[in-house]
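Sample log: Ni,Fe-hydrogenase I large subunit.
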Amino acid sequence: MTTAGQLRVSARFADRQIDDLTVDLQRPSVARLFIGQLPDVVIKTVPYLFTLCSHAQRAAAQAAVNAALGETPRPPEQEALWLEVLHENLWRLLLDWPVAVGLPPAREAFIAWRALRQDAGCVAQTRDLIEQTLRPLVAACRERLAAATGDMAAITPAPDSRLDAEAWLAYWRGEVAEPPPLPVPASVLAAYLARQAEVEAAVTALADGLPFPIARAGSAGWGVGQTLTARGRLTHAVHVVEGRVARYRVQAPTDGFFADATALAALLANRRFVGLDQARQALEQAILALDPCLPYTLEVHDA
């Protein structure tokens, strides 16, 4: 976004555990900019407001508008969407996660891949990066995470590709009280391994020319569009009245994961720490596992 907002996380370290965990997510009201606009204006504007995952944002907006107006879906930029997912996941896996477990990042390898990702040989370059750099680094990071968390039996999960546009449409129309829940990772290690699985799946899809997952539902002015980002499911919802946008909502994974402290607390449940530094590192890893798409501050007070 032009102004992404701010996330504040605070906690207290006492009796070898993290207590009093609080989450304060402040997001700008971007959707209000769309009220009264023509639907096509929203589609054109969205990529300029959301600089992170802009292709996914546009695809979700396009799908929502198409569904609301009963239009034939326009083909999305498949290659750009797969590359966007690869970029965000590789950024985390090569740069952020190694540091989070006390290892050096693979900065040069990531920069080299990033510079060439638009080239014709991108698939081959990505596979080389996975084989030569990512997999050995994942093995090292996984060992440290498993030792720290005791989650030794974690199995590499398949990417969560379930989209629920129909269920979200029921909420958007007021037929149910709550939106469908966002799946929460079973553990920090599971969230980490899911990102590796997403990279492997994305490069295969890019090589095979597979369609990017996009779902849409709606009619008679009500529309919901969904797609995937590296952080999870992204939802756009629109209500068009007399050719103009009357209501609009964007629900990003960050909005669900950090609406309160529930998801974060679940990743830290039953953990014990030898000191404040270890507790803070574990909390940093849990935040990274949920991967907020905006800056955050963290305070851990020693009781």
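Observation: The chain has a mean pLDDT of 91.
Observation: The longest strand covers residues 17-26.
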